[in-house]
Amino acid sequence: MNAAQRFRDLHRPGRPFLLPNAWDYGSAAALAASGFPAIGTTSLGVAAVHGRPDAAGVTRAETVELAEAIKGLGVLVTVDVEGGFSDDPAEVSALVAGLAALGVAGVNIEDGRPDGTLRPIGLQQEIIQAALGHGVFVNARTDTCWLRTGDTLERVRAYGHADGVFVPGLTGLDAVAEVAAATPLPLNVLHQPDGPTLAELGAAGVARVSTGSLLYRAALQGALATALAVQGRPAPPVPTYAETAAMLPQPG
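The line above is the sequence of Isocitrate lyase/phosphoenolpyruvate mutase family protein; the predicted structure tokens follow.
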């Protein structure tokens, strides 16, 4: 059984698995050593490590480099490739083919754009199609909730040719259950620290729960808290995604 099939088998609606997201070799190695069967990468973490803006399509080389570095850790790896780093389906196909050759089990491709808009549905369908056929699990992410624009159910249904769907920012068990019921594909949601438990999300039909940038942001908080404690100063809260992204170089 190949890596993609083993990864696919982890997706069991009603019994979601937790996918922690790494940002460098050390974080990936620590997660692998802790027994997680699969790990993802986080585009924010990768961008931050290299001093680049997130979700701007500028970290293709760094993303591939990380995938190659962690491929030998003995766990299944799925890679966040933002929007595929191109609007050209042929270039996206080549990217995914290259990752497949490294032994990657999956990719995550989003429809959100840096300017806060969504890629046109027709083009995103072509991008998803281009990513298929390379022997990796293609998770189609829609940023309707994240960017507060567009129709979530329309997008989820439009991406029905993917292997899975991911709706970060989707909150409320009723809303989660509605999306899960709208697609035959396994549903992936983002963990919310104060949100539903894995069991509750499973009861709503979720198959996979990702930590996204949370672990990287928690690592920043831990490092800063340790430094401040030496001076007797209180620990700060975990920074939000927006706060972390704002510290990075901006696109353009």
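Note on the example: The first strand starts at residue 17 and ends at 19. The chain has one domain: 3-247.
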